[in-house]
Amino acid sequence: MATTWNDQQTDAYFGMIAETVTIPGHNGDPIRAYYSRPIGDGPFPSLVLIPHMPGWDEWCWETARRFTQHGYRVLCPNIYERFGYGTPTEVSQRIWGQGGAPDETVMGDTDGSLNFLRTQPNANGKVGVIGMCSGGRHTFLAACTLEGIDAAVDCWGGGVIAPAEEATPVKPVAPIEYAEGLSCPLLGIFGNDDKHPSAEEVDQLEAVLKELGKDYTFYRYDGAGHGIWYYDKPLYRQEQAMDSWNKALQFLDEHLKQ
Question: CB neighbours (10 Å) of residue 90?
């Protein structure tokens, strides 16, 4: 399937299945997940899409299907399952009120998602992780603390670098403290006008990864702030969004399809 946007051959077959499934998450807790995958013989690479703070929402599900259109089995777990049900906006309000989803349960749910994908028919054995906003922070944390991840994409993840005084029971350690454990190639996508993370924080993150000799590539966009892929919000930046989408697809293809 095509590596970049709109390069599909018009005589090719395209089909997919997308549905809600239940998987074992943290401590074996049953959680819902949105699972999209191509129809065909495969084998196909796999991708965990960690939801952003706006919630386990329609944007995440559409994004899962976009990656599936490019040949990926994608699982987007409901890391907010324990906050109850309702619209994404209603659930997000509860999450904010409790300080966010605990890192421990998010990592457990992500690990459960990785295990689920590895056992699926027609899987090629390669699994990546991607996330936006808080999901970008969780992606970095997963890439540093979980085993068996082949590639990771952090999209404007804020809070990777955070002072010790900002630690909370749900976020006890800044992910940067685990950077030594980064064991897969990392792609970062950031807007230079963002405040969370700020350009200075991205500089600090890059300095740490460079000092540790990690395999990373950052793309940083002028004229863009936070959430440049969010076409439903004023944050959207068409030119920067499409350029970074293609770079993410090329990166994942290189590390997960080869």
Answer: 12
The pTM for the full model equals 0.97
Nearest to 102 by CA among 169, 174, 187: 169
From residue 61, alpha-carbon distances to 78, 198, 226 in Å are 11, 28, 20
The half-sphere exposure of 62 on its side-chain side, counting CA atoms within 13 A, is 7
Instruction: Decide: helix, strand or coil at residue 20.
Output: strand
For the four alpha carbons of 191, 192, 193 and 198, in that order, the dihedral sign comes to positive
Task: Compute the distance between CA of residue 156 and CA of residue 132 in angstroms, rounded to an integer.
Answer: 6
Tens digits of per-residue pLDDT, 52-106?
988 999 999 999 999 999 999 999 999 999 999 999 999 999 988 888 899 999 9
Q: Which residues pair with 35 in a beta bridge?
A: 19, 75
Given CA atoms 251, 101, 134, 215 in this order, what sign does their dihedral have?
A: negative
Determine how β-strand 151-155 pairs with β-strand 123-132: parallel
- Give the other-Cβ count within 10 Å of 84's Cβ: 9
